[in-house]
Input
Amino acid sequence: MAAQIYSGEKYASRRREISANLAKRPEFHDSKPLPFMTREEKILESSRKLTLISKHMNEIIDPSDKRELYHLNCEVLGIEGNPMALHGDMFIPALTAQASDEQQEKWLSRALRREIIGTYAQTELGHGTNLRKLETIATYDVDTQEFVLHTPQITALKWWPGNLGKSSNYAVVVALMIIKGKNYGPQTFMVPLRDEKTHQPLKGITIGDIGPKLAYNIVDNGFLGFDHYRIPRTNLLMRHTRVEPDGTFVKPPHAKINYSAMVHVRSYMITGQAIMLAYALTIATRYSSVRRQGQIDTTQPEVKVLEYQTQQHRLFPSIARAYAFVFAGAETVRLYERVLQEVETGNVSLMADLHALTSGLKSVVTHQTAQGIEQARMACGGHGYSQASYISEIFGVAVGGCTYEGENLVMLQQLARYLVKSAGLVQAGQSSKLGPLVAYLGAKSDSTSLIDRTPTPGFAEYVKTFQHIARKQTLKAAQKLFGFMEKGDTREVAWNKSTVELNRASRLHTRLYIVEAFVRRVEEVADPRLKEVLTDLLRLHVNYELLDVAAYALEDGFLSSSQLDYIREQLYFYLAKIRPNAVSLVDSWEFSDRELRSVLGRRDGNVYENLFAWAKASPLNKTDVLPSVDKYLKPLMESARASKL
Ligand SMILES: CC/C=C\C/C=C\C/C=C/C/C=C\CCCCC(=O)SCCNC(=O)CCNC(=O)[C@H](O)C(C)(C)COP(=O)(O)OP(=O)(O)OC[C@H]1O[C@@H](n2cnc3c(N)ncnc32)[C@H](O)[C@@H]1OP(=O)(O)O
Ligand SMILES: Cc1cc2nc3c(=O)[nH]c(=O)nc-3n(C[C@H](O)[C@H](O)[C@H](O)COP(=O)(O)OP(=O)(O)OC[C@H]3O[C@@H](n4cnc5c(N)ncnc54)[C@H](O)[C@@H]3O)c2cc1C
Output
């Protein structure tokens, strides 16, 4: 099953080898539990481990393999980030996609050797979503052939970029490019921030950390201001866009080609989110198979809480989602790598499809992942609330994904733009022009679903039902938009009046895509035992997801209430059928205890012994009487006693 999750036996067994290798190297392990460390201690500890990784990487992984590096990072550094997180996630991808060969020779090679540390500085105090209104300006000075970076007011300060505050000495900075008074929109520049020897900020640079956050606190998200800070013309990233010495602007083949680092993260983060969801579910499912509370049959002993149907309903649909997301994530990574190669040859035709797909997936997957992790926390009762479970940290890190790389409700609208265009083609009788991701919009719907009406063993009737729902909502929302425009609203005003409905269409389209990705993967499985278990999980998934959106199919009679009853019964049937495999389904992700960092979710199942040992290790328990008691509580109680006398 691990080979299914990790897209092949090769990587699944490499993961095992890497974990086994690390198990023998205590210097790579956390020196104490992360929840007992201050932020400063965590950053120091993470930097220590990062340095070890850099030194010994070649002994443990193939450094050219991104997935091996990702696994090494998960095991050793963990999810709370590290001082070079953005270096790998965005700085290197930005240089790879946007720097010219010459620039890559100069900077990418140094970045890959870790001679310099970089980040991606785009968001500002006043603007994150609306990139066209960023306020940092890069004005071209023809005389000196330099760009002058400047922060004209406080809202123009770069704010949020990861590892900008303290760790990075370079950044790919996004600024509005002004040449001879003309605004050429957001462009990307390679900018030195700190002296390479002393690490002191360079003259003209104001820089620092923005302070603690909900989670992800090992990362020094930072602020950055420029005071008429000059960089050479050749620091504009020039793979696709160019500015000649005389200030002539050479347009790229696609207007949004500079957004590639964002698309990179959106493509990869689907897998990252699936893994964080699977972390939380591993912890909660293992714990639920140890925790005994209450009885189902009063003549029998107390049961494991995993026997309760409510507990299964709380956890198993999310287990199915984690599998669905990892399968969909593998597809987005393949598409991203393909588009990256095609762009190299000048073919930008798939950029819009990739952008639409990843915008929708990013939004739906992060939202459902956060929901699933929070349910996993509650499934652990009181112990879920303790940081010993580590689920609160997993939640905090994962939920950041709802905001970064484009706020979810904004990114759903990006997909909606694509859907509306497709709906326009359908309306104009040009369905043959629809791309493969939206071809179903042009198909004719049956009048009713055949779920429970026809003995089809596969998933075709479910897929058709999801397609019907997504098609109906897309065409309806587009119609609403066109209707407002026909009545005289501008497109922008009409758009704003339709966005709740448009975003619903985007979610339904994305949920259909996720179901289809799951079906595609299960159909490929050859081993009959694995196929049976995955088919059960997929059955659970389609029934659960369909119930969740059933209102759309009930309102036009596509599904009847008796079909709904059938879907519910199927859901309950598969909850029970999956129960014996539940622990194996989470164990199949093969997370080591080191990687999970959860006292509650350890493989040995010794929950109570482990919790007690953890509590005893708490720094508060080093002494029996705390200084706060000596200083305040004792005098308080003493004076209360004295006044009574
Ligand atoms: C092996 C490894 C496995 C797992 C790895 C796990 C985890 C990975 C990562 C971990 C994450 C760690 C850290 C996270 C760091 C987070 C970093 C950041 O947050 S960086 C900052 C991100 N900022 C944003 O995302 C800003 C969001 N805003 C935008 O993107 C844009 O402003 C906008 C909303 C898209 C609008 O842009 P704009 O105003 O320029 O464009 P229009 O709306 O007018 O649209 C015009 C036209 O262009 C199309 N378009 C927009 N973007 C793109 C694109 N990228 N590609 C292609 N086309 C694009 C748009 O759809 C319109 O098309 P039209 O309808 O006109 O055809
Ligand atoms: C953990 C974390 C790490 C980050 N790392 C980086 C980084 O490395 N580099 C970097 O540059 N940035 C980074 N960011 C910033 C991040 O990318 C932005 O915060 C994000 O893109 C959202 O933008 P915003 O903050 O401007 O939100 P806003 O746009 O202000 O959103 C506020 C509200 O307004 C709504 N809204 C905004 N515009 C519209 C619209 N057009 N239509 C409808 N509703 C709208 C949103 O839906 C939301 O409800 C990070 C953020 C976080 C939380």
About this structure: The two ends are 72 Å apart (CA to CA). The mean pLDDT is 97.
